[in-house]
Amino acid sequence: MKKSPSLVPPKGTHIILDLYECSNRSLLDSPEKIEEILKESVKEANATLIDIKLHKFSPVGVSGFALISESHISIHTWPEAGYAGVDIYTCGTKTLPDKAADLLIKKFKSQKPSIIKIERGAYAEKF
Fold this sequence. Notes:
The chain has helices at 31-44, 97-107; strands at 6-8, 12-22, 49-56, 62-68, 71-78, 83-91, 110-120, 123-125. By secondary structure, it is of the alpha+beta class.
């Protein structure tokens, strides 16, 4: 009799957020406010912050990331379009990336968020 493959549990969770129709466009252009929101999202995810780096573009836009012990949260903004692209990638079993995603949607007041959730590193192991 042939054995069924065993499933290797995921190593991490990757949430891809497209935040469309963000009503506060000036927030999308503020590195100071984005830093505050990234810090809040790390806390909400029950993650450990290592560092935050941000870059302000001219004339508008911000890119940055929060490096966390469990991986990262990154953001790229287009204030003129009311849009932000966000990645939340966490590993381990204690993190709560969904809570961080909910917080980011709320803080950026996205009227049309798109969420893709991927379990990373899971596979069926053959015998």
